[in-house]
Amino acid sequence: MTDTAKTPADFWFDPLCPWAWMTSRWMLEVEKVRPVEVRWHVMSLAVLNEPKLDELPEQYQEMMRGPAWGPVRVCIAAADKHGDEVLGPLYTALGTRFHNQGLERNRETIVAALEEVGLPAELADAADTDAYDDLLRASHKVGIDLVGQDVGTPVIAVPGSDGEQIAFFGPVVTPAPKGDEAAKLWDGTLMVASIPGFYEIKRTRTVGPIFD
């Protein structure tokens, strides 16, 4: 199967979100079992929550005002300087450290992730500046405009039968399905997303993210 024959799946992520991380690991499995190519993009929980920040729990407000900005700024700076193709490997390097290894989301961890994927350590400086915020907001807006405001991360968009992109939030799943289960979830997600007027299936989560 050539790359040109693969269906593009645009995936917007914030590396801080453990549920987006689970979904992203599922998408890597989907690439193995379906003719799909994931194209990675950055969205921001800090930007998403700006309009309702005062309504959030105090601890979450503090995260959105401070620590939530750093990793997404570094990701968007890396893409700006070195191309969008670095986002997938960088996301994996960051997410493995943040979620699987439980490391602090600080400069040292970010530098280690950058160096792992062959990117310059000085990109970590972007975490503490708003120099790339316009690009970050623009990337975020593309994904949100496709799916609407009443969602979180991740957002996935795929071509519909009429050529227009079909976008959806999630799916939220743990642990990340593999093999045939990954394929079944992908097929089912596309099926329901393609139905005009379909919006949501949901049930209460009874377990947290299971990282493996």
UniProtKB/TrEMBL annotation:
<dbReference type="InterPro" id="IPR036249">
    <property type="entry name" value="Thioredoxin-like_sf"/>
</dbReference>
<protein>
    <submittedName>
        <fullName>DsbA family protein</fullName>
    </submittedName>
</protein>
<dbReference type="Pfam" id="PF22234">
    <property type="entry name" value="Rv2466c-like"/>
</dbReference>
<dbReference type="InterPro" id="IPR053977">
    <property type="entry name" value="Rv2466c-like"/>
</dbReference>
